[in-house]
UniProtKB/TrEMBL annotation:
SMART domains: RAB, RAN, RAS, RHO. It is found in: Membrane. The small GTPases Rab are key regulators in vesicle trafficking. This is Ras-related protein Rab.
Length: 210
């Protein structure tokens, strides 16, 4: 349909934080323990309905290995939003999430020149039931997210599905809201992964998925 939206959403973060698992949980409602490390880039499509509009979310799974990062930045082009993932049991992955966000801010811009909205997801929340494991304080992660310009921060579990759908749909709603506020009426955005017709058409705070 002409009124459908296609949104390109980057999913980035360090190796083994669960990027692929989050994508599979969201798109197929499935989980496996034996996902192989992503080599290069893979993507999946998820159609949803938001505000009576069909939105096709194209989730780009970007490999986290250092040797690929320089090459893979080419795939950032025309992204509408990003999900940055860290492992709640690994402080290093949270610190690197801030670096991923800064890199996206430098490499990707919206048609109006603004930075794309990014949400920070702390994956593997199901492990909080595991004794003897050290976890990142969610309030610390949220504060770091605010300082780094993320539009929201939430813990998720690809294994159980907790908050995965809520976070993704909340991000998409913010993108659409931003588009409504920034695009003039009867505008078609071309040469990007956003297609919008017939209507003027982004997670500004930590409660973005409410």
């Amino acid at each position: 349909m002409d009124d459908d939206l296609l949104l390109k959403v980057l999913v980035v973060g360090d190796v083994a934080v669960g990027k692929t698992s989050i994508i599979q949980r969201y798109t197929n409602d499935s989980f496996r323990k034996d996902y192989k490390t992503t080599i290069g880039v893979e993507f999946a499509l998820k159609p949803i309905e938001v505000d009576d509009k069909c939105v096709n979310i194209q989730l780009w799974d970007i490999a986290g290995q250092d040797r690929f990062i320089g090459l893979l930045r080419n795939f950032y082009r025309n992204a509408s939003a990003a999900i940055v993932v860290y492992d709640i049991t690994s402080p290093k992955t949270l610190q690197n999430a801030v670096k991923w966000k800064a890199d996206i801010d430098k490499k990707v811009r919206l048609p109006d020149g603004g930075i794309i909205p990014c949400i920070l997801l702390g994956n593997k929340s199901d492990l909080r039931e595991t004794e003897g494991t050290t976890f990142i304080d969610p309030e610390y992660a949220m504060e770091l997210a605010k300082k780094s310009g993320f539009i929201g921060c939430m813990e998720t579990s690809a294994k159980t599905g907790a908050n995965v759908g809520r976070a993704c749909k909340g991000l998409v709603k913010k993108v659409i809201t931003s588009m409504k506020n920034s695009q003039p009426a009867q505008t078609v955005v071309k040469d990007s992964n956003i297609t919008l017709k017939g209507r003027s058409q982004k997670k500004a705070d930590s409660s973005c998925c409410n």
